[in-house]
Design brief:
Helix content: 10-25%
Distance between the termini: 42 Å
Shape: globular
Number of helices: 6
Largest sheet: 7 strands, mixed
CATH superfamily of the largest domain: Bira Bifunctional Protein, Domain 2
Bound molecules: adenosine-5'-triphosphate
Number of strands: 14
Strand order of the largest sheet: 1-2-5-9-8-7-6
């Protein structure tokens, strides 16, 4: 692992510690372990363009051929954030990444799929995974962004990349844009005592969330399936899904969401 002097100047202007791995299994796993052993400052970043054992939720695989994608993990020291507001961290990251990708894919339909996938034209360009450090003192948020991935390298039909969208990703700018927004959102959330409505984060997330208004199917952790329309995001960050004919929405805090129609 090396610390580049000038490889990512915009990122280095935002982050106190930028480390680049030539290749690694998982930037999230590395940073979780490293930050538990050593004092890494808030907004420390570990990145690679060759992540070999990337993970999604529920230990699903995140597949990226070498050089085709950016894996970036950021350490967040959010001890002042009330525990019941921590669920907003992945949503804040999803919002920040959606905005950062929008800044470069200006002609495309870039939206957040609740809670934190970034889709371009309904296809996933970025997945995000938030994990606590081993001592629970900090949170590591990892993002996998498909950058130079060629059409024949896409691991699933539902994926896309900057290259597939006809653009070259400016990785340094992407990370800097993302980190600035993420830090700002969390700082405001802490200042508001964890109230995402008061801090403006709730409105920011709603504003970019392409899941809202769509017919969705949700596989719930208990194995049941909920079908309805995604009608809102509540003050806790849960997705509100209204079944046909139901007066009140059900609140979903964890589940696999399929957008039924695009
Ligand atoms: P879904 O994408 O179905 O909503 P999810 O949000 O739970 O699932 P993650 O757990 O974040 O997804 O990511 C893992 C899933 O993403 C894999 O099961 C696979 O379908 C898909 N995937 C794996 N690698 C990539 C990639 N490079 N780009 C886009 N999608 C990928």
């Amino acid at each position: 692992m090396t610390i580049p002097a000038n490889g990512y100047p915009l990122t280095a202007a935002v982050s106190p510690r930028v480390q680049v791995a030539e290749h690694t299994g998982s930037t999230n796993a590395d940073l979780v372990v490293a930050a538990s052993a050593e004092e890494y400052p808030h907004l420390s970043v570990l990145l690679t363009t060759d992540q070999r054992s990337g993970r999604g939720r529920l230990d699903r695989r995140w597949e990226t051929p070498p050089g085709s994608a950016l894996a970036v993990s950021v350490l967040l020291r959010v001890g002042e954030l009330p525990l019941d507001a921590r669920g907003w961290i992945p949503l804040a990251a999803g919002w920040a990444m959606t905005e950062a990708i929008r800044a470069q894919l200006t002609d495309q339909d870039v939206a957040l799929k609740w809670p934190n996938d970034v889709l371009v034209g309904g296809r996933k360009i970025c997945g995000i995974l938030a994990e606590a450090t081993l001592d629970f003192a900090a949170v590591v948020v990892g993002s996998g962004i498909n950058t130079a991935m060629a059409p024949e390298q896409l691991p699933v039909e539902t994926a896309t990349s900057f290259a597939v969208e006809g653009e070259v990703c400016d990785e340094d700018r992407l990370m800097a844009d993302y980190l600035v927004r993420l830090d700002r959102a969390l700082t405001a959330l802490i200042a508001a005592g964890g109230d995402a409505v008061a801090s403006g984060l709730h409105a920011d997330v709603v504003g970019v969330c392409g899941t809202l208004g769509r017919a969705v199917r949700v596989s719930l952790p208990d194995g049941s399936v909920l079908e309805g329309t995604a009608t809102g995001i509540d003050a806790e960050g849960r997705l509100q899904v209204t079944r046909a004919g139901a007066a009140e929405p059900a609140a979903v805090s964890a589940g696999d969401i399929v957008h039924l129609r695009f």
